[in-house]
Amino acid sequence: MRVDVLTVGTELLLGQIVDTNSSWIGEQLAAHGFDSLLQVKVGDNLGRVAAALRRALADADAVVVCGGLGPTHDDLTRESIAAVMGVELELQEDIADRVREIFAARGRYMPDNNLRQAMVPAGASVIDQTRGTAPGLICPVVVDGAHKVLYAVPGVPHEMKDMIERAVLPDLHRRSGEVAVIVSRTLRTWGESESGLGERLSGIIDELDAVGNPTLAFLASGWDGMKIRLTAKAPNRAAAAALLAHWSARVQAIVGDQVFGYDDDTMESVVLQRMRERGLTLAVAESVTGGLVAARLTGIAGASDVLRGSIVSYASDVKFDLLGVMPGPVVNEAAAGQMALGARRVLDSSIGLALTGVAGPSEQDGMPVGTVCIGLAIGDTVRTTTVRLAGQREQVRQLSVIAALDELRRRLG
Amino acid sequence: MRVDVLTVGTELLLGQIVDTNSSWIGEQLAAHGFDSLLQVKVGDNLGRVAAALRRALADADAVVVCGGLGPTHDDLTRESIAAVMGVELELQEDIADRVREIFAARGRYMPDNNLRQAMVPAGASVIDQTRGTAPGLICPVVVDGAHKVLYAVPGVPHEMKDMIERAVLPDLHRRSGEVAVIVSRTLRTWGESESGLGERLSGIIDELDAVGNPTLAFLASGWDGMKIRLTAKAPNRAAAAALLAHWSARVQAIVGDQVFGYDDDTMESVVLQRMRERGLTLAVAESVTGGLVAARLTGIAGASDVLRGSIVSYASDVKFDLLGVMPGPVVNEAAAGQMALGARRVLDSSIGLALTGVAGPSEQDGMPVGTVCIGLAIGDTVRTTTVRLAGQREQVRQLSVIAALDELRRRLG
Description:
The structure is a homodimer.
Chain A: E1 3-8, H1 10-13, H2 21-31, E2 38-42, H3 46-59, E3 62-66, H4 77-85, E4 89-91, H5 93-105, E5 119-121, E6 125-127, E7 136-143, E8 146-153, H6 157-176, E9 181-189, H7 194-200, H8 202-211, E10 215-220, E11 226-234, H9 237-255, E12 259-262, H10 267-277, E13 282-286, H11 292-297, E14 307-313, H12 316-321, H13 333-347, E15 351-357, E16 371-378, E17 381-388, H14 393-412
Parallel strand pairs in A: 1-2, 1-3, 3-8, 13-14, 13-15
Antiparallel strand pairs in A: 4-5, 6-7, 7-8, 9-11, 9-12, 10-11, 15-16, 16-17
Helix pairs in contact in A: 2-6, 3-4, 10-14
């Protein structure tokens, strides 16, 4: 079933507001097994909204139109839908009463134009408003003999999301004749590209393509790593969970310890949790990342149980004088190891983690941009490694953070 | 002149990436006086991209298509344009050489599919790539006897922005036959809300509403502060510059030293530049921001001239033992002052800047969430101040960074 999306608002076209509504709706539609092949932004203009609706209905089975349901003169979605349906707008007294009640409950005077929100195209049914004053609409339309449907929801994100989840998705499932629940599970990974993972998982991907359920998607997420999302459709939640458990175990058997967590886990939450469980504390010494490792760890409330602090040793002689690095070039594994030991000593922690590297724009110590040396002092051992990261300054810095935290995660076991 | 926008990518429809490109393009078009009445997202499908291009060209004078110019099999914008133009794709050897050079310079093997980027629809001209490997395209199209134009630019935001500014907007101005130039100037401010600035500037805003040129817009930009953008249209660049100079001086006379810079200046670039000019070096001690101050300063290439480093003293006893803070509660101005002195001593700099505060989720030392104490050690003086910031954990952390750097900026004079 194809469900296209139309977002209405001149401010969207002017770039004053980024249209995140259609992205959110698109994500929900995909998770529920509906295709969305065209998503259109159009301004507050009756003729153009109506034209865009007609075009969308020509190709799609259903169209969600978002925005333009408010009380002001430039809220024209209702009129546009009536024009497309070839019907009149009718005042529904129960909605008018509801709008009056909402104003009364807030102790506010109601300008008359708010009653525009009680106008409903003849033949449409209403999605009750539970948060704002504008109700949504479900409008059956016949196009070239085919029965299609237009859904109108407000542009205010929390009102829109409420109506999509409460009314639009269930109605779409009813019309598509499917009764099912949709549940997703995301495997969080780091260490391999989308193409590399795709190659290793090609057998599973082929099997899933054949059965069609669950679906598997890769989501490249920068310094949040590569997400592998499984989405299962099943008659009930227990059946969906069983499907996800089976397939995520199969994926994990192949991807192995590149999987660092699930769903809302992040690399930093996983590292902090493992250290907390083992009663370990962490000190960081960072140069190339300039504070980003500590900033990212301290983004998590409660990091103070584990993180003692970080020495951002940006000047070379801070590395020498404070951290005890041997004077000389500072982008190499020996320096990274000495920084890790220095951080552990100065900040009095059980583990020291250090990064030194070249973020660019130009090379340093003869090392090319993207070279990052990671040092890790745990117990009596110091382990060091060098990674080469792609991209320009900010990307190198950000990828360095997850690469170093992943090194720590693996050593924690 | 009507310029519609088409963004290409299945990931946009699935909500995996929010389409910020069309918003940015829409903003530029509006600032340059062009109408953009429809902006469409479409997936990586030759037939659908071509159909969307044809529809857009039927209504608009020009269409910008963004994305789908990469090397892989699902990058289909070139083929779609050739289909719409009714021409073949031709390999341009000079582009192929350029792509080969880029890979060679990076010391990387070039998979053959990269040469797809050297395929150009017959009759199109090329927008040279200066950042990525994919060039852009300018494609003249005749629709029902009318001369129109298709611009293709990459979906990678910094490549797209470069090509829009360097090639697309100038070409649109040439075609629109307008001799006017549009120039913007942005005053970067920190310290007051949009409504506060709006009230103080209401006289100027009324005058500008009456004359209509330049226009004035506020852009609330989080930890980048509040931007005031003036956009002038004039027959030539000198006239536009004169208009902007006049009005930005009038705005600045009212806003005063809350203006910390212009256009591409950032709070951190301004602070680093002022310190560099005065031969000063900086050491930071941070707790509430957990490394964000240093991370933000080191985001600027060349920060190492000024920034010695930062001590992220997350654990209280790191403040006591390493920085010499008097043991006791740590969220107060006395502690901030001692941290600033400690950072300056330990990292051997001319100036010490320190932050201690409560990011939340819960209060600390009896201080409410959003309390941030800033300490500044310059010469023989230590100055401290306390600010109250709104928002939740991440917002408090980010606003703390610009608040502290602004404190430093003001003391530098």
